[in-house]
Please model this.
Amino acid sequence: MQTVASLDELDLAILRALAVDGRLPFRELARRVGLSTPAVTERVRKLRARGTITAIRAAIDLRHLGVALEVSIALNVAGGRLAEVADKVARIPEVVRCRRLTGDACYLIDAAVSSTEHLKLLIDQLAQLGTTSTSLVIATPVPERLPLGDKPAPVRKRAAKARR
Model:
C-alpha cells in the first residue's frame, strides 16, 4: 500500500485535482500541475495500478433521489455475530456506508431515507440485529475530502517546444 510519504508533490497535486473533479481531462490536469499530458497520463496509470486511485465517482445530490434525511446509526452487536451482521447491513439499500468501530458501538452506519416513517422502518430493521443509537444529520460543515490539505500544485515550467 502506498503512503503519503511515498507520493511526491506532483502525485499529490494530481490526487487533489482529481478529488475535486474526477472527470478532469488529462490535458487540463497536466496544465494545472505543470507536466506534459503523456507524463500525467502515465502518473495516473501508475496511481491506479498501485491501488492509490481505486475509483472515479460522481457526486450525486441525494435530494434528487428522494432522500430527505441523512442519518448516522451506531449499532452495537453481541460478539460472534459481527460478520453476519455486516453481511445483513450490506444488503439494506438505504445504507450508504458502514464502518467497523472501536469503542461503545461495533458499527457506524450512514443511511439515507425519504421520511421519518422510512427512518422508523430502517431503525426497526436494524434493531433486530443489535442495539441502535440514531443521529440525524442537520448539516455537513466539512464535506468528504482527502486528508492532504489545500497545498497548491508545485509550479513547474515546461520547456518550450522547439520550433522548426
Summary: Strands lie at 69-76, 95-100, 107-113, 131-136. The first strand starts at residue 69 and ends at 76. The first helix runs from residue 9 to 20. The mean pLDDT is 90.
